[in-house]
Backbone:
């Protein structure tokens, strides 16, 4: 309770406009960086770099624009809970997908087995019927 | 209690407690918003791992310059909203109102650029599900990328629209001279909502455009 009382009774926390301008310029610089890095071939690390830059930007917004620290210890706990929940949800689903045994995965080996994405022509509509004939 | 103080609801002991409860409630609401978008990000991760080639090709169809400009627009609107909170706390409500008006203009600019991108997608049939008919892109999972693209940017766009509504409401009150050091919380809470809209885009931008 002590921390909550301190957060509520504290004088109005109002950083200078200069600080906000600095954070804004940092966010613009990070946006420019992520745009430039997109044109550098970094292979499979490109998503790691892009997400690291996005995380840095998100931290700047949460700490300096949203004043997370002035929200008190419970607000910080809520924020950390959101991070943990999102990480668990995305992390465990991704783990499930990448560790599935191959035969449980839907695989398509040839183009012929692909159903037409949008059967516009009558010729392609006849396709599935032709393929079904050998089964009978 | 001075006349500039906000009204105190009967179930709070004092203004400090009321302010603290409102701020905590806002953080809790933003947590639920984060989980709403997390569901979409989880679906995105799953399908991107399943169909990496389709996501790469789909991303190449998107205009990276438009996405980058929109990121700059939204970050700048977040900055002007942060300034409006700063001026409301400094008891300069009209300046705060002007900052909110600028933020609303940026929000409309964002929707305009997004709308022109949508128009291009409709023109080239880069659409979700069975409406997908983009020429030269026939790998499995192609339509899924655009389904996720339209749902996630659409839900984000809905949040931008709600944010414009909230900013207009708070902006009018600020221009009329409401809000001061003692009574600035409505500006702060609406500002937090707008920063969340910015946060979601900060992650949507690299995941959709920069594959």
Residues:
């Amino acid at each position: 309770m002590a921390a909550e009382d301190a957060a509520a009774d504290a004088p109005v926390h109002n950083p200078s406009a200069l600080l906000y301008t600095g954070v804004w310029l940092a966010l613009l610089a990070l946006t420019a960086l992520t745009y430039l890095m997109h044109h550098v071939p970094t292979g499979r690390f490109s998503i790691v770099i892009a997400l690291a830059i996005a995380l840095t930007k998100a931290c700047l917004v949460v700490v300096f624009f949203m004043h997370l620290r002035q929200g008190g210890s419970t607000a910080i706990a809520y924020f950390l809970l959101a991070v943990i929940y999102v990480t668990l949800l995305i992390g465990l689903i991704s783990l499930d997908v990448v560790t599935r045994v191959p035969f449980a995965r839907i695989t398509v080996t040839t183009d012929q087995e692909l159903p037409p994405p949008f059967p516009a022509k009558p010729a392609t509509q006849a396709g599935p019927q032709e393929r079904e004939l050998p089964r009978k | 209690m001075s006349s500039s103080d906000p009204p105190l609801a009967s179930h709070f002991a004092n203004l400090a407690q009321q302010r603290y409860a409102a701020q905590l409630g806002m953080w809790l609401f933003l947590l639920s918003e984060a989980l709403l978008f997390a569901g979409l990000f989880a679906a995105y991760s799953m399908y991107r791992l399943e169909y990496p080639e389709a996501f790469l090709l789909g991303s190449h169809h998107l205009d990276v310059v438009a996405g980058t400009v929109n990121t700059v627009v939204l970050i700048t609107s977040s900055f002007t909203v942060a300034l409006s909170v700063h001026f409301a706390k400094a008891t300069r409500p009209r300046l705060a109102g002007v900052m909110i008006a600028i933020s609303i203009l940026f929000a409309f600019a964002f929707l305009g650029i997004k709308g022109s991108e949508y128009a291009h997608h409709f023109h080239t049939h880069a659409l979700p599900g069975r409406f997908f008919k983009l020429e030269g892109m026939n790998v499995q999972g192609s339509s899924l990328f655009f389904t996720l693209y339209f749902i996630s940017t659409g839900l984000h766009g809905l949040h931008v629209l709600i944010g414009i509504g909230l900013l207009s409401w708070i902006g009018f009150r600020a221009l009329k001279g409401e809000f001061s050091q003692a009574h600035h919380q409505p500006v702060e809470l609406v500002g937090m909502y707008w920063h969340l809209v910015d946060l979601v885009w900060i992650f949507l931008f690299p995941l959709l455009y920069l594959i």
